[in-house]
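Hi! If you just cloned this repository, the fastest way to understand the data is to look at a raw example. We've pasted two of them here, unedited. The first protein comes first, obviously.
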Amino acid sequence: MIGEKIKSLLISSEGALVKPAEEVAVVGLKNRLNHALLILTSDKYAVVPVLDDESKMCGLISMPTIFQAIMNIEDVEFEKLGEIEVREVMDTDYPVVKEDFELEEVLHALVNHAFITVVDDDNYFKGIITRSEILKGTNRIAHEFEKLYDVREKTQEKLNRDEEVKKESVLK
C-alpha cells in the first residue's frame, strides 16, 4: 500500500494525474489508417486511443500496427492506408483503469506502458494517465520529501517490532 504522504507528493493536486479526454488525441473506430497516421505524426505520438461513435474505449492504434497492416514480404503497400479501417488492425489488449483507480495499480501498469486509459463504469473514455506525470511526481518526492518530513532511519530493533505487529494484525 502506498502511504498517504508519498501519494500526496506524487499527485500534486487532486485530479491532476488524469489528462482529460478533451485534451487527448484520439481516432475513431471507423477512421482509415491514413487518418490515424496523420494524427500520430502531426501530434508526435507513438500510440493513441481508438473510440467508437459514443466515445467508448475500443482499443489503441500505433505506428507499428499501421505499418504491419500495409507491409508484405516484398513491399510496403501505401495505397492500403486509405482502404483499411482502424478497427480492423487496432490493439484490443491495453491497460485500462476505472475512474476510482488505485494508484498502485496504475504504477504497475505504467512500468510497461507509456499511458493508461481511464474509463467510467460504462466504458466511456475519460482520459489517460501518463508515465511522464508519474515521473514528475517522483521527481517532486525526490526533491521535497526530506524538506517536508523529518526522516530518520529505523533501527533493526524497531524494524523487527514493526514486522511482529504486522504479523499479529494479519492473524486477527
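Ok, and the second one:
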Amino acid sequence: MRNFDAGTRREQPALPPIKIAEAESRRLSALANSTMDLFPRVAQFLARELERATVTEENDLQGVIRMGSKVTYRDDETGARREIVLVYPHEANIELNRISILTPVGAALIGLSAGQRIEFETPDKRTRGLTVLAVHE
C-alpha cells in the first residue's frame, strides 16, 4: 500500500502502524510543539508520527520502541547495523549511542517494533529506510 504525496507528485511508501502510551504521547507532543521554531522539519515529522500512532495501555507496549528503549536497527541502504538508546534531547550523546527523539532517526523509530521498516526524509532531503531488528527491554 502506498500513499500519494500531492506536493511532490510521487508515491510515498505506506507507514507502518505504531503504538505509544498516552503519557509519553502527551510529553512528546509538547516537545514537538515547543521545538517547532528551532527544528521545524523534525518537529513536524515527530508530530505527524504521534498523530498517526495508536495510543494504548502501558502493558500493551511489550517490544515497542519507547523513550529509553535500546534498539538495534539496520540502515536499509548500507546494511549497517546500529544499536542505540532513544532519549530526550537533554540526554542525547552520540558517543554513547544515545540518540535524541528530535532527530530524523529518533522520530522515525518511536512506536515501532522488531521487524518493522520505515522510510523518512533526512535533513539533506534524501529518503532513508531502516528496519528494526530488536527492541531490548
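That's it. A detail worth noticing about the second one: Residues 1-10 have pLDDT under 50 and may be disordered.
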